[in-house]
Amino acid sequence: MTGKTVQGEKKVFMTGNETVAWAAAAAGAEIMFGYPITPQNEIMHYWAKLAPGHDRKFLQTEDELSAGFCTIGALLAGRKAFSATAGPGTILFQEPVSMAEMMRVPLVVIVQQRGGPSTATVIYSQQEVNMVTHGGNGEGWRVVYSTASHQELYDYTLKAFNTAWKYRFPVFVLGDGYQAKMMESFVMYDPSERGIEMVRAEPTVGSPGLPGVDRRPAHLRNAFSVEEELYELVLPVQEEFAAMAQEVAEYNVQDTNDAEIILVSHGVVSRAASAAARQLRAMGVKTGCFRPVTLRPFPEAALRAEAAKCGNLLVVESAFGQLGRLVKEALLNVPVRSLAAFYKPGLGITAEELVEHIRHGH
Amino acid sequence: MDGYPAMPKSWNIASKPHKFCPGCGHGLVLRVLGELIDEYQLQERLVLGCDIGCSLLAWDFFNVDTLQTHHGRTIPVMTGIRRANPKLLCLAYMGDGGGYAIGAQHLVNATLRNEKIMTLLVNNVNYGMTGGQMAPTTLPGQRTETSPFGRNAEETGGPAQGVEMVAAIAAPGAYVARGTVADLRQLKRFMRRAIENQLAGGGFSFLEALSTCPTNWHTNARQTWNFLEEDMARQFRVGEFAVREKGMGKNDN
Amino acid sequence: MTIKIVIAGEGGQGVQFVGEVLAWAAHGEGMEALYIPNFGIEQRGGVSLAYVQLSGEQIGSPKFRTGEAVIALSERAVSRTKQYVGRQTTFIYDNSLLAAPQVADETVGLQSYDSVAPEAFAKATGGRTQQWQGPLPEKAGRIIGLPAARVARQELHPRVFNTIILGAAVSALRIVGLEAVKSALEAKLGEKFAADPELRELNYLALERGAELATEAQEPGRKAADKSFRNERFEAPKAWLYISSDLCKGCGLCREKCPAAVLDWSDRLGVYGTPSIGPARLDQCIACGLCQLVCPDAAILVERKKKTAPLAVTGK
What we know:
The complex is a heterotrimer. By secondary structure, chain A is α/β, with parallel strands linked by helices.
């Protein structure tokens, strides 16, 4: 067992990447595998620095495939392991994540979104939503926490380990280049001092005892001979995922009770939306906000209830309709008067431009 | 009589007869491995990772912890397990496609980092499970489904000398060898040393086994042996390419 | 009316060939035909399924619930195809093969958590007869059992086993004419036939023999024969030879390596329904153990009468 990295509560000021490294350490992560890609590099840098002093391990692998599969190996051996990536790295990560979905490996991956498609920018976007929610050749059995602040990066990185080990589905913490690189203050804490119990890691292979005599050998599969075999396996997992969704889905709302318009956004953009809504209210436009914290499972029921009340929604994101697609799916058969879009792929969004857009254009 | 048939104790009897094709060399490689698992009492500490391809069919072959990985990704998974739990002996089992094509970057980098895992690569000079396509190891002139007129080295290169490549970049403490199912006693000698290298805390152990694939070679028994013992033997040199010096291993006296 | 047919057997039995030729033959007669193979992950060894649909009109989905005919060529294939058998189904199976051992079904498609511990193996295999529990599908409208594998082996050639089945299916189902099947065979095997005209004759004979067998066949009305884990012992001058046809896949590697030409094909069918190896010239055996060494399936054990060396692969 690894020692504590945080004593008591501590107000700190640092970058988001550093935040993630400290959060993973506080969560009891024991080993990280990673491959350089901007804008997540400093997660590895900070982890590599703090690892030796706290009896943690780090390996820089040859690519993201290796980082993902090494992490899976360490998880199967019963260690809390994690990785971090972005952009083209997230593409490669779909392969190990899909194995984790099938074999129920508690894989935690922090993604700091950069612009896309292709190499694009190393700066910022919200264009990795499709990929983290539904990438891979399966049914999208992942949990995706989209954070908006360093406090959330810290809180949800801690939570990601617990969700992963409790439900045994892969978990993404979805940040972005802004959150990765910006510095802001937040409170760092040891989870046990806040009554947060961390789920214990258990080995899947290499348990004590002679296999075949003292215990059953672990024969772990992801390949099957016939389609019915796969079908029988997939359906119950799908049910488990749906049951988990009830417990895991999270969202925030702001001033929606009397709203004439609700801004739907996630991640760092929700900060602009929230500020814009307050400004608009001061100008007499009753504006509310809905923000899914989990993009997968998506808080569908909550959004449907808000939409049914208000009927006028504006989806705001730094991508061209990736959140929009999730929203549309959630709102199927809910009669809304207007579902409009404010899409700025790969571009940061300010409260001011939102205010202008709504006052003049909408 | 007790102990019949001639199966190592560590074999999982429930999965026998195994699912490899008639005349497939995997059964021979896995028997040699099974005998060594018995001899060194490795059942409890061995983790066998099976690459996708025919090597996948080894997933329930033994009463040891095994797992299927993705095509080419067995070395990283075993690396992760070994780094997380150094008490385990981690064996990545794969074919020539998994090792020298789709997973080549992992093989190269695990060698460079001198990962303390063992890789056992069965080279049957084609992609067997997918129906006999050309592999990096396919011989010049050899007909496969994707080289129907024979492999043209001008266009697609010559047979991959994987063992030589690994040996060329191997760090001190590594063990690198190539055996063949045509000489099982020698293969067992090499495999023993590859395992001992792990037990001694040495570095990366890499063993390639030249093997047979009558199904996709479209050969009868005589042609199968001939292809292995003559055609393949001409292209691939059998022997030890890198041996751990005494004292290189953590546990060497 | 669309005729739906499922053909199932062990990989390597030629199931796909039967399906494809049937479809080709119907196509040749101007019918709509749809054939789709459904392989397991294994190149050999998994249950191989061929789905064929023949019709006078456009054919819908390639898969279907119930077949007009289900042809099962191994024990595993019988249980694998049960779901396709309905009241109108003609169920055709090979009753000479059902008695033969198959790759244990419980090892396919299950986490093999329930595997036998090595120590328990002797008990599990020591002469115990493994009863096949699964009955033939009761629902079937008509059950036709025929000894195709035995007939192939004894009268024709093991290789035309599947052609016998093809002949039986054509005769039992009356879906396409024998001539159309022969044309389809010609289209598939024309080059081989040209090189070896006897092969054409052999296949035609097999077709006709299959048709005869189907006509002769009675509903068996009995349980399938017992399945035993066979393990035969033979005495040679210097050693006891144990050969398990339940493990032998008939690859012949041992036959080639035996320096004294002791081994040859036997009348026993091995695990894949092909001839297994047997001692043809026991008196010549020098007890070298090479056959055991090169057997990829651990089907051979050589027990020297004077024990001089361990029987495992030696090598220090």
